[in-house]
Every structure is written in C-alpha cells, then in structure tokens.
Amino acid sequence: MPDGAGGMVKRSGGQLLADALVAQGVTHVFAVPGESYLDLLDGLYAQRNRLELVTCRFEAGAVHMAEAQAKITGQPGVAIVTRGPGACHAAIGVHVAFQDSTPLVLLVGQIPVEETDRETFQEVDYRQMFAPLAKWVTQIDDAKRIPELMAHAFDVARSGRPGPVVVAISEEMQKHLVATPDLPPQRVLPAHPAPEAIEEALALLAKAKRPLAILGGGAQWSAEGRAAIAEFLTANDIPVAVSFRRMGLFDGTSEHYAGDLGVGADAGLVAKAKEADLILAIGTRMGEPVSQGYTLLDMAGRTPIIQVHPEQAEIGRVYRVALGITADVNRFAAAIRASRVAPQWGEWRKAVRAARVAQAVAPEYPGPLNLAVALQALAKEVPDDTIWTSDAGNFATWFNRFVHLKAGQDFCGPTNGAMGYGVPAAIGAAITHPGRQVLCIVGDGGFLMTGQEIATAFHHGVAPIILVFNNRMYGTIRMYQERAYPERISGTELTNPDFARFIEAFGGHGEVVERTEELVPAYRRAVASGRPALIELRTDPEQVTNRATIAELRAQGRKG
Question: Least C-beta-crowded within 10 Å: which of 135, 185, 216, 413?
Fold first, then answer.
C-alpha cells in the first residue's frame, strides 16, 4: 500500500473507524452486522486483539448492552447497527441513554452519498431521526475527517450531562483510502465547584432542621466519588434518598439510607421529603419520577434546594434553587468530603430511616410465594459485588421496596421505563465484568421483548442469572386499567412459554420457583451450573403490586 503525505500509510475508511475506536480507549463494541458497514467490520477484524466485537441478535439489545457497560464503567459504550430498520430498532437504546444521562456512541451504516434523497433502499436522514434523542448527530462522508469527528463524538458523549451521540457512516466512504493520523482522547479537567460554593452550601445546611439528600445521575459517578459523598453525608447525619433506579449510588444497609424516590416510592419517604426544609439534590435533574410528577416540592423554591449538576442548563430547569453549583459530581464530593457542620437533626434522620425500615418489612402476602421474603433471603445470599440489572414494570417495585443494596453492588435500570432493557443489560454487564455475579430482574412481558439476547451470553461465554417474574400479564398497564376501568380487561393478558425450557434449549440452566423457600436453593444451583441461567418465579396474578391486589384496585376504581 503506498504511503500518504508525510510518510503515513493510507488506510480505508473502515480501518480508520476501527482505529479511531481503539484510539479512544474502547474495549468492546456491541453490534448486529449489516452490509452497510462491511468495511468497518473488516477494520474490526484487523483490531480483533485489541477490541472485542460482541455479536448481538437484535439492535435494541446491542445498544442496551453498550449502555449498561457505560453505566458501570463511566466510559462511553459503543454500538454499531446497520441503516434503516437497524437504526430504528436501535432508537430505543438511544432514548434510554439520553434520559439516563449515559455516555454512548452509536455508529449507523448509511447509504451511498450519491443516492441521497432518492428514497433509496433503507434510506433515512439520521440527523432528523435522532435529533430529539441524542446530544449530537453527525454523518461522515469524507474519510479524512474520521479521526476528527469520531474524537469529537466521544468528547460530546462524555461532557457536561453525558449522553448519546449518533454517527452515520456512509457506505462508500468506508472504502476510500486516505492518510490521516489518529486522535487520542481529549484531556479535560472536570469542572470543580466555584470557590465560594462549598462555604455557601454549608451555610444553608447549618440553618436547616430537616435536611434530605437526593443522589442522582448514573455513569458520571466514580467509586471514589460515591465514597466521598457518602462520607460527607453520613458524618453530618443527613438522611439520603436516591433518585429513580439509582440504588447503586448509596449503601442501602446504612442507617442513613431513606429509600428511592421514583415510581412506586415509599409513601413514608414521600411524606418526609415534603417535610424537609432543605434538599441537597446532588447529580439529579429532579425530573418527573423523582419529583412524584412534579408534586413533591413547590416550583418557586419555597423549600430551599442546593442542586449540584455538571450541566448548568439542568440547574433550576424545573425547580428554582437556593444555590446552584455547576460541577462534576465527583469533584464536588471530593471538595465537600471533609466538611462538617454541627447537625441538629438526629431525631429527624432517625425518623426518616424508621419510615424506610417500616416500608421494607415483608407483609404476610397470601399464597405459597411471598416475593418480599424470597427476595430478602436472596439479597443475603448474593456476593457483595453483585451487579443487578432491571427491566421496567411493576415487578421491579418489589425489589426497590424490599431489597437493600450493599455499598459494593451496582444497579442498572432504565429511568425512561424501557421494557426489554434488563436481559441485554445483564449480558453487557457480564461481558464487562466477567468475574462478578450478574443478576437480572425482569417481567414476563419484558423478557419476551429481548430475551433471545441470552444467545449472546452463550456465544461470548458469560453466565448471567435471569429472574423472570411471571404473572401472565402486562402488570403495570393492568394496574392502571383496573383503577380506571374496573373489570374491563383489554390487551393486558399474556400467553407465555415454559421459561425454564426456553433457556434449556440453548444449553442453559432453568428453574421454576413457586414457593418462598425455593428461591435461594434455585439460585445456588444456578450459580453452581456455571452456565447462563433462568429462574422463573410464578407469581400470583391477583397480587398485581406489592401494595394492592386486583380486587382492591377494582374497588378503588368503582369509588372513583
């Protein structure tokens, strides 16, 4: 191959794209192959010793895997899909990354440039399609610009409020031979709090009598940052809630843990949050789930809020704040770690914690399988560094209410409520950390959306354990349906397979649990098998939530 200008060897656009990923420190790419990026696939083959290509079965699954990896590592996840239908399938994962503030780079194969605007085979204008779902959308038509645009894509994904970037790569561009250098990651020091920020925050805290911290954000937190903020909050005896599906941010076994503010939040926590006279919103946008549909606080700022967020535009976006601090959450945590006030709210903190403890007491549910008791027994059994992934649905509120994560455990769940997330996320987590136990909780509805991705786990030699909560319905919608239209069941009943035999067909380990005492032994056998495993929990359809039965919801609906 002839040398290019300056003695550089000419490379194809496909090779440049693969090399750009390596230059940005990417270790895995999650993909469903397509003819629109054959040259990139060839470039990945050349980099196979430095970059693992994870072959997935569905584009949404591939993006969920990449997003879960990013949540756990804090570095941008990478997925590659083909044009048209592939990109459309991938869009849900982009939306997850957007609402979860997760750094992600999605590469999409594109039609030849010369065919643009002819509605050629699988043509889509990705700038228009992804504009409301991504931080930035671009298209590379000139191979010389690959290093520049790819480096910028990663910069944008990481910066401020992290999020997804979509890069369309035209087909013929990948074949062009050019000589151009690779670009390394940009070194940018994270934003520190303003010099006066800590002093002003402590002054506000010192005046409080009933403070409450709410930790939010996901991938932007490092282990050191979580430890630093935990030290500050516990040393100052401040009760700590986490935002929707962010249970991994704080030790749930701590006497300072107040629970999660999100869908299905503890009524006791919501009441205490409304009593608080100072909110420390650290990393959270204070969005709809956290604010209980924007009803938790007065938007004009009657309850003082200290909001810390890396993106200034998010501070005060909905709630007017007493103090906004634009800063990287880890730098803020480090800056305030050693600060101390004279807390005067010991009894308040105990009352908030007592409300959480009371909510987590397992009721005497009727029937042979008490999910609350079974899940609490399982939580004691799993390793201290377990990674939990969750799908979306009513089933997840059992876990949120009754299980307390330990400080070394991670939790990945979709804050945008995307069904079909849990299983691919578990596989992505297992591929990222093959030495850690990964457990997924998912409903029967969500499992059959992306459960076939379990094939990817077999293909790449990882062994997550999937807990399928089977109540033979779309439970969340049935709950709302019974409240609004009692006994008028429409579109929410499901017909399911034998889930244990489903995974056994792949060569995995399958179990069925119908009694409380069966879950822990089933889990132990699943771990001992060393294979991908699925445990089906056959739950009582009547107990549609952990707080109400269908009969009770119908009674409420008739009154309303």
Answer: 185
Helices 85-100 and 59-73: angle between axes, nearest 10 degrees: 30
Q: 């006791």: which residue's tokens?
A: 268
Q: Do 444 and 530 fall within a single domain?
A: yes
Q: What share of the chain is helix, strand, coil (3-state, %, to 5)?
A: 40, 20, 40
Handedness of CA 208, 239, 274, 304 (dihedral sign): positive
270 with 163, same domain: the answer is: no
Q: Which residues of 106-139 are buried (b: 16+ CB within 10 A; e: fewer)?
A: bbbbbbeeeeeeeeeebebebeebbeebbbbbbb
Lowest mean pLDDT among 121-125, 245-249, 302-306: 121-125
CB 259 within 8 A of CB 276: no
How far apart (Å, rounded) are the C-alpha atoms in residues 242 and 240? 7
pTM, whole model, 2 decimals?
Answer: 0.94
Supply angle C-alpha 353, 355, 360, rounded to 5: 95
Distance CA(221)–CA(448), nearest Å, equals 32
Tell me the pLDDT of the chain averaged across its residues: 94
For residue range 289-342, list pLDDT tens digits in order.
Answer: 889 999 998 888 899 999 999 999 999 998 999 999 999 999 999 999 999 999
Asked if the structure places residue 422 within a domain, the reply is yes
Domain containing residue 143: CATH number? 3.40.50.970
278 and 299 assigned to the same domain: yes
Distance CA 488, CA 176 (A): 60
Order of strands, edge to edge, in the sheet holding 305-309?
257-261, 240-243, 211-215, 278-282, 305-309, 323-326
347 shares a domain with 367: no
Are 472 and 519 found together in one domain?
A: yes
Cα 203 versus chain centre, distance: 34
| 292 three-state secondary structure | coil
Q: Does residue 465 fall inside a structural domain?
A: yes
Q: What are phi and psi of 292, to 5 degrees?
A: 55, 55
Residues 106 and 207 in one domain: no
Distance from C-alpha of 1 to C-alpha of 178, rounded to nearest angstrom = 11
Q: Which helix (DSSP H) or strand (DSSP E) does residue 196 occupy? A: none
The total number of structural domains in the chain stands at 3
Domain that holds residue 81: 5-178
- Phi and psi torsions of 316, nearest 5°: 75, 15
> Is residue 325 within 8 Å of 298, Cβ to Cβ?
no
C-alpha 399 chain-centroid distance: 16
